[in-house]
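Holo prediction — nickel (II) ion.
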Amino acid sequence: MALSGEKVRPGVPMARGSRRLRISLALACILFSAPIAANEATEPSPTELIEGLLSGRAPVGGPFELTDQTGHRRTDSDFRGKIVVLYFGYTFCPDVCPTELQSISLALDKLGAAAESVQPLFITVDPERDTPARLADFVSSFHPRLIGLTGSLADIRKTAIAYRTFFVKNGASTPSDYSVDHTGFIYLVGKDGRYLGFLPPGSAPDAIADAIRARLGP
Ligand code: NI
């Protein structure tokens, strides 16, 4: 399922045809299980976020200022000059997030020396539990150059909405025992900070590596 032969214009999703159907199926459980929170009147609905992303018609990405796993403030402009591979998730995620981060890490390994020009980022959708210290343990288990980012819930929500990522906390039987449903797209951001496109959840390491390679330039 290589993407290298696929011509993609800036801002246009890399997903097409049957892949789009697969995304829809993958997201259906999230959409149908998502409770409607009272404050969602002022925020885009999950459907709006996802449709905007899939159609390629809505703007995606933008500036952010968050805290990395070493406690330093980081902004999007820190990563200019690199292709950013961005994934939203949380460290308590039982299986999906670790699998995706493993795929991203394997893709970077496949790129060899070219991966020097790539910055993998993991932004938590669970800032309550994902402290810098917890992120430090988590990201180092995947890739030495993976940067984990956390922040206030408001800053995280703003960044997630900018990337049209949906997340909702649920299932809290005790204050610390809950899961966070979230969409799992992998975003590519160009060396100039502009959004390039996304890869669907479950993309193979080869597909991720091909998509990055196609954008690395000479
Ligand atoms: Ni997850």
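READOUT: Residues 17-216 form a domain with the Glutaredoxin fold (CATH 3.40.30.10).
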